[in-house]
Write a structure and sequence with these properties.
With about 250 residues, the protein is of the alpha/beta class. It is built from seven helices and ten strands. Helix 2 packs across helix 3 and helix 6 packs antiparallel against helix 7. The chain is globular. It binds S-adenosyl-L-homocysteine.
Length: about 250
C-alpha cells in the first residue's frame, strides 16, 4: 500500500497526526528532499528504506514503489494536491494495480497566512483566494495569466514564482493592481529560518532582490494585507445565525 502524505509547510510538528503515524509505520519512504524538512526522517523506523526523490525521475520513483513490500510513504511538501505532481504517479500506480491513498497536509499557503498573522478573506476586501503561479518552464494555460487573474483584485497567493518577480510585478500592475497594493514575500514559512518581507506591488521586485529571495517563497498580494475592512456578519450582535439570535434594533 502506498500512502501519499502531506508533510506540512516545514516545521516538523505541522505534519498531521495521521501523517506522522504513517511515517512511523513505513517500510519505505520516498520524500521530496528539496522542500521537506530532514527532521521528519526522525519519525521513521531504523530499518525503513529512505529515498530522496529530488534526484529521481518519475520512472525511478515508480520502480522503487513497484519493487516494495509493505507500507510505502510518498512524502510531499505542504499539501500534495497543490503542485505535487501526484496525479502522474497515481496514474502509473493505477496501471500497475497498486493501491494507494492520500493523507492531506497543511499547505504553505496556510503556513504563510499564519506567519503573516493575517486572514485572506476579509469582508469587503476579498472573499476569494487565487492560488496560482507565473508561467516559467512549466507553462500556464492562456486563461490563467497573472495579468488576467490580477484583474479580479482578489487575494492572490503565488507559488513557484519568487525567482521571476520582475515579470510578476509587471503582470500584476498590467492586470490592475495599484502600485501601492500591499504585498508580502514569505520565505520558508514555519521553518526556523522563516523570513517575511513586506512591500507593495510596485516594490515587489526590488524587495525580493534586496532580500536575496529567489526560491522557497510565496508571494502574497492584496488588500487583505492592509487595514481597511468590514467586521464580519458572523459576530455582529444584530445578525441572527443558526446558533445565535441577533438583537433587535
Ligand atoms: N504542495 C506544496 C507546494 C509545492 S510547490 C504546498 O502545499 O505548499 C513548491 C513551492 O511551494 C515553492 O516553490 C514555494 O513557492 C512554495 N512553498 C513550499 N513550502 C513553502 C514554505 N514553507 N514557505 C514558503 N513557500 C513555500
Amino acid at each position: 500500500m502506498v500512502h501519499f502524505v502531506g508533510a506540512g509547510p516545514g516545521a516538523v510538528d505541522l505534519i498531521t497526526i495521521r501523517g506522522a503515524e504513517l511515517l512511523k509505520r513505513a517500510d519505505t519512504l520516498i520524500y521530496t528532499g528539496s522542500l521537506v524538512s530532514a527532521e521528519l526522517l526522525d519519525y521513521v523506523k531504523p530499518d525503513c528504506r529512505v529515498f530522496n526523490s529530488a534526484n529521481m525521475t518519475l520512472d525511478e520513483v515508480i520502480a522503487v514503489i513497484a519493487d516494495c513490500r509493505g507500507d510505502i510513504v510518498r512524502l510531499h511538501t505542504g499539501d500534495p494536491s497543490l503542485y505535487g505532481a501526484i496525479r502522474e504517479q497515481m496514474d502509473r500506480l493505477n496501471a500497475l494495480g497498486i493501491q494507494y491513498d492520500v493523507c492531506p497536509g497543511v499547505s504553505s499557503f496556510s503556513g504563510a497566512a499564519a506567519a503573516l498573522k493575517t486572514e485572506y478573506t476579509l469582508p469587503n476586501v476579498s472573499q476569494s483566494v487565487i492560488i496560482t503561479r507565473i508561467a516559467g518552464r512549466t507553462p500556464v494555460p492562456d486563461g490563467e495569466s497573472i495579468r488576467g487573474l490580477a484583474a479580479h483584485g482578489a487575494t492572490m497567493v503565488i507559488f513557484l514564482s519568487a525567482g521571476m518577480t520582475a515579470r510578476l510585478q509587471s503582470e500584476l500592475l498590467e492586470g490592475g493592481y495599484r502600485e501601492d497594493t500591499p504585498a508580502a514575500i514569505v520565505y520558508k514559512a514555519t521553518w526556523s529560518d522563516q523570513r517575511i518581507v513586506r512591500c507593495t506591488v510596485g516594490t515587489l521586485h526590488s524587495a525580493a532582490s534586496d532580500a536575496g529571495i529567489s526560491n522557497h517563497a510565496l508571494i502574497c498580494v492584496g488588500g487583505f494585507l492592509g487595514d481597511d475592512y468590514e467586521l464580519s456578519k458572523l459576530y455582529d450582535p444584530a445578525f441572527t445565525t443558526a446558533f445565535r439570535e441577533g438583537a433587535q434594533s
